[in-house]
Amino acid sequence: MVAVVLALTYPNLPSLDILTDYQPKIPLRVYSADDHLIGEFGEERRAFVHIGDIPEVMKQAILAAEDDRFYQHGGIDATGVLRAIIQNILGGAKKQGASTITQQVARNFYLSPEKTYLRKIYEALLAFKIEANLSKDQIFELYINQIFLGHRAYGFAAASQIYYGKPLKEITTAEAAMLAGLPKAPSAFNPIVNPQRARLRQQYVLRRMRELGFITDQQHKEALDQTLVIKREPSGFSMHAEYVAEMARQMVVEQFPDGVYQHGLKVYTTIRKEDQDAAYDSLRKGVLDYDRRHGYRGAEAYVDLSEIKSDQDETLDELLQDFEDSPDLHPAIVLEASTKQIRAYRHGGEIVTLAGNELRPALRMLDSKAPANKRLRRGAVIRLQSDSKNKWRITQMPDVEAAFIAADPQTGAIRALVGGFDFNRNKFNHATQAWRQPGSSFKPFIYSGSLEKGFTAASVIDDSPISIPASVTGSQAWEPKNYDGRYDGPMRMRTALARSKNMVSIRLLQASGVNFIQDYVTRFGFESSKHPPYLTMALGAGSVTPWQMVTAYSVFANGGHRIQPYIVSEIRDARDQVIAQARPVKAADAPLVIDPRNAYIMDSMMRDVTIYGTAGRAAATLKRRDLAGKTGTTNDHVDAWFCGYQRTIVGCSWIGFDQPKNMGRGETGGTTALPIWIGYMKTALKNVPQTFLPQPPGLVSVETPWSSREIFYKENVPDLTPPEPEPDSPVEEDTQNDPIYDHLQQFH
Questions:
Q1: Residue 564 three-state SS
Q2: Can you name the residues that pair with 580 across neighbouring β-strands?
Q3: What Å distances lie between residue 194 and 184, 325, 387, CA to CA?
Q4: DSSP code for 592
Q5: Which residues form a coiled coil (predicted)?
Q6: Taking the C-alpha atoms of 246, 249, 253 and 254 in order, what is their torsion angle to the nearest 10 degrees?
């Protein structure tokens, strides 16, 4: 009877076309310009690898864990079946299976995972058919690339990237054994979710590898002793460029909407790993430094530990699953808290003890008088950070947000972009989507416009109080102020920009004409509608994005040309053929939007900002004199900016709250945003020699009464009068610090 059933069933088994013409779903992948994977989008995360490219140790680990007689049997392992039957009879239930690798291939491609005897028979017949039509290496290759290994990883190549952040070819014996243990139960033996059970499974695989002669006793010992570094956020990417990857994804979906997540498209961006790492690290440091200056806010949340009886209870790991790791900010559950010490549980069973100076930031929240919903006690969730000496310290997820973007001013290629502190927490891209007031970082565009109206860097403007009566504003009287409340009388434009004098900026705008300046700034890529024609424009009361600011400052950096920033350089198909490519216009061929002489003079003035002005820390820290830029701080310290450049790279940093509010007294562009820019430029300019804009024709350098030379348009050399004494040290940045009235009317 059995023979009849088999005879009737075998010819009706499904075709093996799905195996012989294997076309796995390959996700959309996004890469940096230097070929680092930065993003992957698709239901299945998979990286196809040929059998010849799979490390021997990985193949041996899989065979030891799943089917050590794979190359001897014909699809069904009789020895394994007999062993499983004995175990199941002794256990009184179906406790052990005997599926070979071939049977698992049959199941993964054709069958459901249900455990019935009928399905097992069907599976066995398919296994025989597969063995009759494919070679052992072909079957093994299918298994290695198709098997599910947790966290949307299909195949061992994808799993290696996701769990270890490395390609399969670099895997160690210990790492291979851990991965080989996953197919049995990806959730139960997951090294992220269940590190202890994963470790036990790994030990079993290593023992089997030694018994089978795949590894020696010494290799077995070394593998057991190796500490595995598991990526807690299993992205599998070697750099943090999540905002860039998402921008690239949106562009590709818009251009190729059909099947974009399964046909293996590859998107190459313009960012570089070294630049991106520098931008990411500098932004994180700047935000965390700001956060520490404003004190510890207490527990992030609380979990119920009433049922926890042991410090190594596996439930603790389950409780921590609700709190995602943020790089360097690891969640932990407080087991014990007092003013003397805190004991906290981290993922994987590590108990961290904090005492002495390590507790200082959190002492206020350990006091019995601390707010009940923030006090540190048993069950509180805190964040831990490792310092430069690998010691833990208590920290917290910051509330403030930030953005940084850098571009090549000659081509528009974006070299680094960080759209926020943590993409997993806040996917809003502040670099491209956040419309914020630029404050004093907008002043260079007003000064540039005033040069076109006949002013010069040596023009003397009065820095004295201004009062605009209600009869002019149509609302309340407007009395803008300088940041420090000081008014220094007549001064040169050059000095006023370096010291960010509000009164001078207002008078320049008034004299140049607000309608003219509103139109003039559109040359830099700004939208006139975002900059109403009122005198408050002089204080940066309009709206800009960091992307726009980088575009605009590039005009000064390249000598007057407006380039178009871009972030995707090309798109390739699964066969590595280019199907779309960017065609950037280099600065030399881009529209000339301002007079090159204007750009040269503005560059000269903004270099003073970084040498002795509000950004004096830039030249002092980087030890360069070819840096130019401008700080910006808005009314009530809501936004802090620094936008600046060296001829080869322009960058802009911003920091502020998503729901605008005061960041605190003293949190100016020079204090809060400039350090992020400097941190990035330390890397971006480390091997770049000092270079300066070449002087264009039509300029003349003239000796001035203040014992220095000044640059003028040849046709516009003014009568020179002695100005006030120059400052000889960096000064505190001036900010808007004035009320903005929607109905402030233009006056002349």
A1: coil
A2: 571
A3: 14, 16, 27
A4: B
A5: none
A6: 70
Q: Which two tokens stand for residue 362?
A: 């959190």
pLDDT tens per residue, range 349-405:
889 999 988 888 899 999 988 999 999 999 999 999 988 778 899 999 999 999 999
Q: Which of 40, 44, 66, 667 is catalytic?
A: 66
| CB neighbours of residue 135 within 10 Å | 10
Residue 260 structure tokens: 């974009």
Residues 6+ apart with CB under 8 A from 8: none
Average pLDDT score, the chain: 88
3-state secondary structure of 217: helix
Beta carbons of 568 and 267 less than 8 angstroms apart: yes
Identify whether 440 is a catalytic site residue: yes
Where do the domains of the chain lie, and which CATH numbers do they carry?
A: 46-234 (1.10.3810.10), 297-395 (2.40.50.140), 403-567+582-716 (3.40.710.10)
| Distant-in-sequence, close-in-space partners of 563: CB < 8 Å, separation ≥ 6 | 409, 410, 411, 412, 551, 554, 584, 585, 586, 587, 590
Q: How many CA atoms lie within 13 A of 501 on its CB side?
A: 25
**CA–CA separation, 243 and 433 (whole Å):** 11
**Interacting residues of 85 by C-beta distance below 8 A, sequence separation 6+:** none
- Asked if 594 and 561 touch (Cβ cutoff 8 Å), the reply is no
DSSP-derived 3-state class of residue 26: strand
| 728 burial via Cβ count (<10 Å: 0-12, 13-18, 19+) | exposed
Helix 117-133 and helix 2-9, axial crossing angle in degrees, nearest 10: 60
Residues ≥6 apart with Cβ < 8 Å to 241 = 32, 38, 39, 269, 271, 276, 280, 417
Query: pLDDT for 173-229, tens place per residue?
Result: 999 999 999 998 887 788 887 888 889 999 999 999 999 999 999 999 999 999 888
Report the alpha-carbon distance of residue 550 to residue 525 in Å, rounded.
Answer: 10
Residue type, 544: V
Residue with tokens 């070449």: 694
Residue 243: closest CA among 280, 275, 278 = 280
**Number of neighbours of residue 418 by Cβ within 10 angstroms:** 30
At 422, list the tokens: 């943590």
Please name the residues in contact with 364: beta carbons below 8 A apart, sequence gap of 6 or more: 295, 296, 370
Record the tokens describing residue 446, joined without a space: 């007003």
Cβ burial 641-663 (10 Å sphere, 16+ → b, else e)? bbbbbbbbbbbbbbbbeeeeeeb
| Structure tokens given for 29 | 């992948």
Of 235, 440, 441, 448, which is the active-site residue?
440
Contact between residue 674 and residue 617 where contact means Cβ atoms under 8 Å apart: yes
- Cα–Cα distances (Å) from 556 to 101, 260, 442, 553, 650, in that order, read 64, 39, 13, 5, 10
66 is catalytic: yes
Give the number of residues written for the chain: 748
Whole-number pLDDT of residue 649? 98
Amino acid at residue number 471: S
0.70 cut: is pTM over it? yes
d(CA 449, CA 446): 5
Query: pLDDT value at position 399?
Result: 96
Q: In this structure, what token pair is assigned to residue 741?
A: 């009235």
What 3 state SS string does 374-417 have? CCCCCCEEEEEEECCCCCEEEECCCCCEEEEEEECCCCCEEEEE
| 3-state secondary structure (DSSP) of residue 530 | helix
Query: What is the three-class DSSP state of 723?
Result: coil
Q: What is the spatial distance between Cα 107 and Cα 124, in angstroms, rounded to a whole number? A: 10
Q: Distance of CA 82 to CAs 76, 91, 104, 129, 208, Å?
A: 11, 14, 18, 22, 19
Rounded CA separation 454/508 (Å) = 11
Q: What is the pLDDT of residues 720-737, one digit of tens each?
A: 765 555 555 455 554 444
How far is Cα 239 from Cα 279, in angstroms, rounded to an integer? 11
Average pLDDT over residues 459-479: 82
